[in-house]
Amino acid sequence: MKITSIALLLFASISLRAEEWAPIKDQTKDTTVNGRAMETFQHGVKPEWGYAAPQQDTFIVVHPAADRANAPLYVVLHSAGHDVFSCVNCTKTVGNHDIYRSPDDHYALYVDCRKNMGDWWWGGMHLKDAALTAKNSGGDPMPAEKRVMDTVRWTIQKYGIDPNRVYLCGNSMGGSGTLGIGMRHGDVFAAIKANVPAGIEHVSNRMYFPPQSVPETVKLPDPPVCVDYSGQNDGWSAGHERFVQAMNDRKYALYFYWGPFGHANNSAQIMKVNDLIDSFDWLGVKKNEPYAAFTNASGNTKLPWPDDLKNTAPGQVNAFFRWKNISDTADKIDLSLHLVSATELKTSFEIPKAATADVTLRRLQHFQLQPGASFRWTFGAAKGEGRADTHGLITVAGLKITGEPVTLSVSR
Predict the structure, then answer these.
(1) Is there a contact between 291 and 363 (Cβ–Cβ < 8 Å)?
(2) Shared-domain flag, residues 342 and 268
């Protein structure tokens, strides 16, 4: 009887720990990086993640330069050549995987996928390994993806993070993970940024891009605003024409830049080829605010994928479109739309004086329409009527956008 009681208590204790999943701080590794406090945590797995065997993982939290309440969170996924410690170490040197370096006023979360072999962000999917692609294909997230998301949620809660300013980025394999994990979780991430992502198979599977289709039983939240820059002379960038087309057809917000900079990670060197990679303020996007997705736009550069990869010209998709929220009520939504000007953005690209685009309104907080419901819109002197699509999305087609901010108003 006594042994049974002890066994039950032990079982209850193990169950409680698994349910609570409390990462343990390794105080021996408390230090600073770039003058900012750094904490290292160890943890096991949750059963619901679906790992075949127990494993131990590590993540690192870097504090803002001056601790503050309600700070934003900058989440980093490292490349296949790094682990969580070497990833953080890169941030000490300008030019060494610059996307790993978080702003001083953000918390930063660095997650590891190197210690346990095969535990890749992308599930190991890439065109060079058909077996792994088959194993990890489909819409269901793999254990590593579930681990990342629970780690992000734990960090948000523990450090009092502003839940509307959580951002995800990564380089190479981490860029692939950024697209695949980030696009699926627009309910968590405000915006994402992928530096030379190593493949688009991960995101294509998780988002059910063609030839797949979204099952009727799956509801995808409005995705984060996505920034991607890739080199047409980088073999890992293969398939980007499919990714760009799918993002356009789904009316998702994409800012895409390319050039023959290969599989690079030094921002200054990349900017010598394409100086737009940091031109969009992705860290200014908030999850609790509407945004405009621009699609079918004039002025986009012709993609070099898949048949013109020897073309050495840089290019862009949607690079110059901007929006500003004005109001979002139950009866009407107003956003200002414009093209950046030469005074706002210094670039070697020629900024058009005008461009047309279809504009889809996403993440509406108060103005909601049922699928098929009618609406009216005005944009300067232009006006018209439309109907929400089968998902309740509002799209106004063929707007002529210039450098002069003009308010798009949509009402019932």
Answers:
(1) yes
(2) no
